[in-house]
Specification:
The chain has 124 residues and is an alpha+beta fold. It is 14% helix and 29% strand. It is built from one helix and six strands, in the order H-E-E-E-E-E-E. The strands form two sheets. The chain has a four-stranded antiparallel β-sheet with strand order 5-4-3-6, with no helix packed on it. The longest helix is centred in the first third of the chain and has 17 residues. The protein is flat, with a radius of gyration of 30 Å. The N and C termini lie far apart (62 Å). The relative contact order is 0.14.
Length: 124
């Protein structure tokens, strides 16, 4: 019985180490277009039997998916200070969303920063 267990352990070690070779892999990045975007809203107005052949028409896409970076988001004021070198007021805003960078604006020192406004989404 013991030689059988020993042989099975040896075979397991041999077969498990067989697949442990370094692999060289290359990645591809695909950019989609609006025509190849997936559908997020399908039409539910299906025609009934007398209007179509047995009521088997295809559903139509009513809304295609859009890139999340194409839209707008809310920017909220988090910090303001007056720059010593230029004498201008610097307003720093945080974009609402995950993984978005901060936005910095400069203006005259006599003006006040706007609390929040709609700004473009840009990823880090």
């Amino acid at each position: 019985m013991r030689p059988w267990v020993f042989l099975s352990l040896v075979f397991m070690l041999l077969f498990s180490s067989y697949g442990m070779q370094p692999a060289l892999a290359g990645g591809k990045t695909y950019q989609g277009s609006e025509s190849s975007a997936h559908c997020t809203l399908w039409s539910k107005d299906r025609l009934r039997w007398p209007q179509t052949i047995l009521g088997r028409e295809k559903a139509e896409c009513r809304r295609k998916a859009v890139d999340s970076s194409a839209g707008k988001t809310t920017c909220r004021l988090i910090k303001t200070y007056i720059d010593d070198d230029s004498g201008e007021r610097i307003c720093i805003y945080r974009r609402q969303g995950t993984g978005l960078e901060e936005l910095s604006l400069s203006m005259s020192a006599f003006l006040h920063c706007q609390k929040d406004f709609e700004c473009k989404r840009t990823a880090k």
